[in-house]
Amino acid sequence: MKVNNILFRHYTCSKKCMKKQPSLFVCLLLDAIGMSSFFIPIIGESFDIIWAPFAALIYIYLFGFRNGWQGALFTFVEEFAPGTDFIPTFTISWLYMNAVSDKSKVA
Fold it and tell me: Domain residue spans in the chain?
């Protein structure tokens, strides 16, 4: 199985083009990595300083810069700020993307 098939789920838009959408598994995995620092008392917050910029870059890669830069900024702040690691930013974004794409199919 190719890595691209694991990272992205392809769907066809109305203009007969293929759009990439991150898979739920990858979003859950990235949220788990971000939350893992919550369980390590002292070292965990220093891990967040390193993880925050990587999480923002991964967010931009998965969701695209044009639509995802606000989410990437939120992801960076959420991972960098102490005590906010419990927010599943990637999963919330995945749910939002699926809700919006499902509504556009109905309309």
Answer: 23-106
Summarised one tens digit per residue, pLDDT across range 47-88 is 888 999 999 999 999 988 887 889 999 999 998 888 888 899
| Contact predicate 52/80, CB 8 Å | yes
Q: What is the mean pLDDT of the chain?
A: 80
Q: How far apart are CA 66 and CA 60, in angstroms?
A: 9
Provide the phi-psi class of 12: left if phi over 0, else alpha when psi is between -120 and 50, else beta.
beta
| Contact present, 72 and 51 (Cβ < 8 Å) | no
The beta strands (E) that lie in 1-107 are given as 8-12, 18-22
- Token match 């005590």: residue? 83
Question: What gap in Å lies between CA 21 and CA 63, rounded to an integer?
Answer: 7
Which residue type is seen at 10?
Answer: H
**CA dist 68 → 11, 37, 83, 107 (Å):** 18, 24, 23, 24
